[in-house]
């Protein structure tokens, strides 16, 4: 599996729109998409952390290069104080409760 973790800083008053944008994101319909989580910081309520998982690096890169993802990114970027801080990489271990 492969994915990204991103640090996002929301503009004041953009919290609801940010959440709405994340739940309407077409990435869930992209081949290879597995899951997405968005965390809101306890320390700074304007800071969010986004974690996205794909089946493979190829699926992740195909999504990142798609015109639909560019539209989604531009909508998201309008709600942020600055560009997201991206950290891409291979997922080397994971576990789930049974």
Count the E strands: 4
Strand residue content: 25-35%
- What is the mean predicted local confidence, pLDDT? 91
Give helix and strand order, one letter per element, not per position.
Answer: EHEEHHE
Low-confidence stretches: none
**Class by SSE composition:** alpha+beta
Structure description:
The protein is α+β, with helices and mostly antiparallel strands. It is 29% helix and 31% strand. It contains three helices and four strands. The chain has helices spanning 15-23, 57-64, 67-77, and strands at 2-9, 33-40, 47-54, 85-90. The chain has a four-stranded antiparallel β-sheet with strand order 2-3-1-4. Strand 2 (33-40) and strand 3 (47-54) form a beta hairpin. The chain is globular. The model has no long low-confidence stretch (mean pLDDT 91).
């Amino acid at each position: 599996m492969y994915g990204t973790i991103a640090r996002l800083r929301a503009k004041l008053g953009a919290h609801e729109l940010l959440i709405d944008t994340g739940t309407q994101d077409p990435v869930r319909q992209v081949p290879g998409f597995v899951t997405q989580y968005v965390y809101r910081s306890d320390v700074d309520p304007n800071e969010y952390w986004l974690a996205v998982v794909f089946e493979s690096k190829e699926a992740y890169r195909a999504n990142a290069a798609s015109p639909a993802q560019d539209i989604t990114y531009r909508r998201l970027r309008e709600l942020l104080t600055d560009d997201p801080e991206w950290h891409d990489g291979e997922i080397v271990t994971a576990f789930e409760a049974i």
